[in-house]
Design a protein that fits this description.
The complex is a heterodimer of chains A (103) and B (335).
Chain A (H helix, E strand, L loop, with lengths): L6 H7 L4 E7 L4 H10 L5 E4 L7 H5 L7 E6 L4 E6 L5 H15 L1
Parallel strand pairs in A: 1-2
Antiparallel strand pairs in A: 3-4
Chain B lengths: L2 H16 L5 H17 L3 H14 L6 H15 L3 H11 L6 H17 L3 H14 L4 H13 L3 H12 L4 H7 L7 H25 L3 H14 L12 H11 L3 H15 L2 H13 L7 H12 L7 E3 L5 E3 H4 L4 E7 L3
Antiparallel strand pairs in B: 1-2
Helix pairs in contact in B: 2-3, 3-4, 4-6, 5-6, 6-7, 6-8, 7-8, 8-9, 8-11, 9-11, 10-11, 11-12, 11-13, 12-13, 13-14, 13-15, 14-15, 14-16
Amino acid sequence: MELPRLEPIWESGKDKGVSVIAIEGRRDTQRAKDFISEHGLTFHFLEASENGPDVVKDLYRVRAFPTSFILDGKGKILYYHLGFEAGDEETIQKEIDSILNQS
Amino acid sequence: MSRSAVFVMICLLQVFLSGCGPTKAAIDQAYAKAEEAYGKAQKSDEKIKIFKDFLALYPDSDHTPDILDTLYYYMVDEGGDAEGFLTYMKILEPRVHASTSKTMIQVLKISSLGRLERCGDIETLAGKLAKDAGLSYDELIRVAHACQSCDQWNYVLSNVEAALNFATPEAFQKDYPDYDFTPERLERYAGRRKAESLALKGWAQFHLNKFNDALNTFQKAGEVETFSLVGVGENPLNVYRGRTLLAMGRVEEARESVIPDAVFAGDKAALDVLREIYEREPAPADTFDQYVENLREERAPLASDFSLSGYDGASRDFQELRGKKATLLTFWFPT
């Protein structure tokens, strides 16, 4: 439900050097695809893999979905959000704007 | 004996065994109907009415504890009407005889009283409950939280200590007999219980001025939890630990304990502790907000690189997808 709220962040940011990437953590491929097309989402989508390092659990130590990270241009994690409630997209937008204003 | 006489006897036996009330099948059928209507209902008021209507007819079925749990959610958690819920319990209580339902009513009454901060009443009820010891994990935690809102820390402590006995994979499985969990999942759920109850136990010890015991308990709780990349916890453990260290005068450790939650997750309670420390001994920053920003710059970890496939099957490097200025990386799953 929360994911479509990220679309405006991507729409308004993609020409300003902002990227939005969503990683689906349970490999629920068909439902993920349906969800993405049903809501017309156009940002980047990746799927967690059974092979290689565990990106979700080990690299990012995510234990609950959704979890979001906001990075600056150098790849430093400046903000972290566990869960997603109505209104969180505004907080996220503010944080992204503050990164844009600083660089 | 004639056939019809045997038939009548069997019927009488059935009535005797089921206690003259509606049969279990009839209740289950009515419950299935109520559940269906509940699922379709849009507004909380409608949902509440559906279940109240069901309980008016069948106050004493196996479904009563679950229904009460749901009613509490809609009436108190969401609706904020603890007073109304207590009034409703008064009406329902004399009609309920099954022990699990009776216990549930006591627990939810205590929760409601906690909301209303009617602390004297809580003390009376919680005292009575402690003796009968039949509470489930969720019920013990509920009572502990209610006692917490009334600063009755001895009760918080005894309830979370009892809750800790249920923080095992076996106990978790026993609470959900209809579910078939993998061992890994059970381990995780048990760990979550353990982390939650240990954090609250240490917080009670802190309030009872047992600072060293509290720190030991937080240490144990920390060993259960695996923290996220930026060191932000799921429960208030870091804040509890920070408060305890601060009370002991160990300011530097207190600061370190709350920095991740305060700086990276914007956790209000953690920010409060950090602000207190900042005001006590101002750091080299003009304002508190500036101080937080400086910490963010200094402490921010680098995001790890990786490659994963997109839905077109092609593998992508995170490096290439990242924004030149900023990136939002979200982990999700379709609901």
